[in-house]
Amino acid sequence: MNARSPFFWGSATASYQCEGAWNEAGKAESLWDRYLHEAHLENGDVASDHYHRYREDIELMAKGNQNAYRFSLSWPRIILNREGDVNEAGVEFYSRVVDACLEFGIEPYVTLYHWDLPQYWQDEGGWLNPAVADAYVRFARVCFDRLGDRVRYWATFNEPKWFVASGYLIGNYPPGLNDPQLAIRAAFNVMYASACCVQVFRDGRFQGEIGIVHSFSPVDGIDETLETRIAMRYADNYCNNWIMDTAAKGEIPIDLLADLNKRYDLSFMSSRQLDVIADNTVDFLGLNYYSRTLVKPYTRGETSIVVNNTGASFKEKPRVVLKDWFEQVLDDPGMEVTAWGTEIYPDGLRRGLLDVYNRYHLPIYVTENGIGVVEEINAEPIDDEYRISFMRSHIEAIKAAMHEGADVRGYFAWSSFDLYSWKNGCEKRYGLIGVDFDRDLRRIPKKSFGWYRDFIARESTAE
Ligand code: BG6
């Protein structure tokens, strides 16, 4: 086991969103490359060009007093084909990134999968195909073998809830499906792959800890009635429990299974797979927190999930209705929201952390937290007081939860620098450092970068 690390004050990125170099040095195509190219949408071909500028970026993190960097590995950069041939240039790139982190005193905190599935596996059915789970585990094994001498923190997946719901239920992410039966199948294959990955990590006696990163959205109800409480349970199962119970306790929530079993075919779940899930639980939970989910009882209509991917110009009314289960309240008059309609609600993080800790008794890392805004890259530093206020209030919420007993061990701001925001493009900026996407990709610190740097310095002296 590791000696206990200091509290991590870091920031985070993901391979597709920041690296660029989409077809350089042997990298294979990912499903996001194919999907965005075919749809002629803004893409991550260049993104923040982190592939070429990683050293400058990591040095900036160190100048900002950050002691951990959460990033992901691009599977198609590392594995060339379905046969599993390794792209040495890809492995060497990540090896250099890890070495740069260590040189600058930064803990590399590595996510194995942040959504960029190789297209050659999407061509075989993506997460609907159990063979993809096996291939993912072989990919993970290569990463442990080649980087495990220097990496001590691993996450199996980033946000299964988000990429499965978006890709297989809502259809706004690749592969663009909206079919609950298929979504259930993909969800199960992902959670099974995660457990197999934990098994390989343990069997290989690799150093360090392995966890999973979840898009955490604590559920609140509009009132205290029985109907609302039932709706809250459905929402919690949908938003949170199928990932956290499965990964941390090795159990898919039994009421969720019973309910799904009435409507869908679950015969594809074998008892052997359920045993692997039960026997291989994670060491920690990574929670990405952007907002809570406020719910009311289901009243009418088909399952319908419409989310804002374009900010203020979004024309449709966002809505989340899960037939017979719950409806999400997105326009409560008291809500303070961003231009994308995301509620700013730090107290959800305090209560949520306590709840998660009390349920699972595992160490927790807040692996993402941030605010996406359209910003002018016109001054140095870029004035982003709202981001400071957002981070300050959320960090205060974390401290309050820790004070009340939650075992939180790190905070990662999303994002280290501006990057590509999936369907929103580069216009939706989250970075502590600005990136001049229109000209030369120059890095320009924002005020929040300096605020975070000084905050970390004060925290380190206080420790
Ligand atoms: C998280 C993801 O869901 O939210 C990130 O892990 C993502 O990859 C972030 O960028 C913010 O979402 P968006 O859609 O605003 O970029």
Short description:
This protein has 463 residues and is an alpha/beta fold. It has a single domain (8-290, 335-462), classed as Glycosidases (TIM Barrel), CATH 3.20.20.80. It has helices spanning 15-18, 31-39, 50-63, 75-78, 88-103, 119-122, 130-147, 160-170, 180-203, 226-249, 254-263, 271-279, 346-360, 385-403, 447-462, and strands spanning 8-12, 68-72, 107-111, 153-158, 209-216, 219-221, 284-289, 293-297, 304-306, 319-322, 326-328, 364-368, 408-414, 433-435, 443-445.
Q: How helical, in percent, are the residues?
A: 40-55%
CATH hierarchy class name? Alpha Beta
Judged by helices, strands and strand pairing, the structural class is alpha/beta
Uncertain runs are none
First and last CA, distance: 23 Å
* CATH architecture label name: Alpha-Beta Barrel
- Count of domain modules: 1
Cofactors and ligands: 6-O-phosphono-beta-D-glucopyranose
CATH fold-level topology:
TIM Barrel
Q: What number is the mean pLDDT?
A: 96
Q: Numbering strands along the chain, what is their spatial order in the largest sheet?
A: 1-2-3-4-5-7-12-13
Q: What characteristic shape results from the CA principal axes?
A: globular
What is the count of DSSP helices, taking H or I runs of 4+ residues? Answer: 15
Largest sheet: 8 strands, parallel, barrel
Measured by DSSP, the beta-strand proportion falls in: 15-25%
Order of helices and strands: EHHHEHHEHHEHHEEHHHEEEEEHEHEEEH
